[in-house]
Amino acid sequence: MKRNLKMFSVLLAFLMLFVYCVPAPQANADSTLVPTEKLTQLSGEDLLNTLLNNGLVIPEALEKEKEYTENAVKTIITDIQRGVTSAERIPYNYTELAELARRVVAISAQNNKSLLASYTLVNSTVIGSWSDTYLGYNCYGYSIGNHVFKDPGYHSNQGGFSMSLPIASMADLVISDLNALGYWALKTTTKPSSLNYYEKVIAIRKGNSDYHFMKGDTSGNDWTHKPGGSNPLRWKYSSPGATIWTNEYSAYNVSNSGSLTYDSTIYYIKYWLKNGPGPQPTKIDPTI
Q1: Residue 19: φ, ψ to 5°
Q2: In this predicted model, what pLDDT tens digit does every residue of 98-150 receive, in sequence order?
Q3: pTM attached to this predicted model
Q4: Pairing of the two strands 211-216 and 200-206
Q5: CB-based contacts of 102: which residues, under 8 Å, 6+ apart?
Q6: What is the rounded distance in angstroms from the CA atom of residue 237 to the CA atom of residue 241?
Q7: Bridge partners, 186 (sequence order)
Q8: Where are the alpha helices (DSSP H) in the chain?
Q9: Where are the domains of the chain?
Q10: Fewest Cβ atoms closer than 10 Å to its Cβ: which of 81, 106, 170, 213?
Q11: Could you tell me which of 148, 152, 172 has the C-alpha nearest to residue 162?
C-alpha cells in the first residue's frame, strides 16, 4: 500500500508540473471580430442577431427595447464604417446608446481607417483645441456645468430614463436635477429673448435615438453645445430653432459629419441659484 501511495504521489506531482509548466492555448482576440463592411449589409433583426452571436452583450436598460436597439446598432455600424465612431470617438449623448456603441466597436473589425479629415462643420464652429477631458462628459454635463456623462434624472436619482419619454418629460427630469443641485428652474417652449444677470438657460431636443442639449448666454443669442465626447462647439445661429440639430462633431482636432438628427419641439429651461439673487419662491410651477 505504501508503494501505491508513493506512485500516486509521483503521478500527482508530475501532473501538477505539467499543468503549471505547459502554457495554456491563447485565444486570438482578432478571431472574434466581425468585418464591419459585412455588417453594414445587414439590417434590423439580422444585424442584431449577428452581433449577439459574436459576443455582443446588450446594456441592461436596452434589453426590452428591441426595436430601438435594432435601429441603434445599424446607426453605430454605419458610423464605424464611415470612420466617425470608434473606441475614442463616441458622438452620442444617451448613456445607453454610447455604451452600446463601445460594445459594438469592441467586436467590430474596422477596415475603413478614414477620419474624414476634409469635413467642415455645417452648423457650428469648434471652440478652442482638443483635450482628452472632453471624452468624460456629454452634452448634458456640458450644458449644466456638471461634467459627467449622465442622462437627465441622474442628479435627482429619478431613474428610468428612456428615449421613449416625451421631450417635455425629459425637460421635467432636468428640472428635478437642477432642483437637487440647488437651483430654481422653469421650462418653456419659447426662446427667452434675454436673461437677467442671475439666470442661465439651456435647451433640450430629442430625435429617435438620442437627445441633445445646448446652453445660451445672457443675451439669448449665443449658444454652445458638445455632442457626446466632442470638443465644445459654437452654434452658428442666434436661435437653437434656426434649423434641425445633428450630431456633427469634432474630436482630436478632426471634424466629422453627423448621422443623427434632433427634430422634436425645443424646450428651454431657465434656472437660477436658490438662496441667491433673483426670485426665491417656496414652491415654483415648472412651466411658464
Answers
A1: -65, -45
A2: 999 999 999 886 644 444 456 999 999 999 999 999 999 999 999 999 999 99
A3: 0.84
A4: antiparallel
A5: 87, 90
A6: 9
A7: 270
A8: 2-21, 36-39, 44-53, 66-82, 95-106, 139-144, 167-180
A9: 30-109, 124-273
A10: 106
A11: 152
